[in-house]
């Protein structure tokens, strides 16, 4: 089994490869209708388990995928006479690396308790969530929604990383942490994610080699940290702005602009222009929907950003003053007072708690 950060093959010969007849390598063999290999526990103290399934029977495939991915009312259409499907995954209590292939046209609803990062190897896939449809791009990872969403897979090959949600929120130190779904990483985020996949996947997937508890945790933390760096965090304002009218759309544009440019010297005129509103119209819209002024919104976003940087600081030489200046706070005393009022602790306390970990 090979997990590639870009589009490419997922199952390597010598580790349970699937042939055109439906045969499986050293993991066993399957007939035309397919068979299932039971989960195989790794010997000794290693808690990882390996699971491999493959075949040509659609009913068997759907029984597995429906249970594992909580598919609701799936609708399937064959796209070829012989339907090949396969799945392989290596899992422990914190993380699972998985790869699958399913040669059908599948429409369904799905959801998962895990945080799932997925990227396409082949075929096509469209995810629809809250009225927004996004096509997966080969080799480009994306966080799937945690709530119910619609999917349309067509002859897909898919790589997935599942992260236990509590493990992730404990690592970040914020039980409310969530990713913004269906957002692609920027170039630097993509580089970080792909480098993590290249560096750690082969070690994780070599189930015949025992990994210590420390090694397993380090790899899981590497994937979780890469996800936090690569994908945007879900902001509470997205849930607060409900509605599909023109005013809601303009307000979302204003909020998008603030979150993207909060480190820059922006103010009400720039935010209003980005939203297509007059300064007064922006003030009225923000007051009506969020009970904030433009200045209060900008300050809260900057405080949130500064807190995130303090919580993720990795070097002893990181200073509160540097982070405050980076977020546009020129007066350290006022920054500390506003920070304490919002979060209940001084920024220096937040920094120390991170560096002690």
Features:
single chain, 357 residues, alpha+beta, ten-stranded antiparallel beta sheet
Chain-wise SSE layout:
Blueprint: E1 35-36, E2 40-41, E3 49-55, H1 58-69, E4 72-78, E5 85-91, E6 95-110, E7 115-129, E8 132-135, E9 142-143, E10 149-163, H2 165-172, H3 187-205, H4 213-230, H5 236-240, H6 246-261, H7 268-275, H8 279-290, H9 294-311, H10 320-326, H11 332-343, H12 347-355
Antiparallel strand pairs: 1-3, 2-3, 3-5, 4-6, 5-6, 6-10, 7-8, 7-9, 7-10
Helix pairs in contact: 3-4, 6-7, 7-8
Describe this structure in words.
This protein is α+β, with helices and mostly antiparallel strands. The protein has helices spanning 58-69, 165-172, 187-205, 213-230, 236-240, 246-261, 268-275, 279-290, 294-311, 320-326, 332-343, 347-355; strands at residues 35-36, 40-41, 49-55, 72-78, 85-91, 95-110, 115-129, 132-135, 142-143, 149-163. Strands 1, 2, 3, 4, 5, 6, 7, 8, 9 and 10 form a ten-stranded antiparallel beta sheet that branches. The chain starts with 34 loop residues before the first strand and ends with a helix.
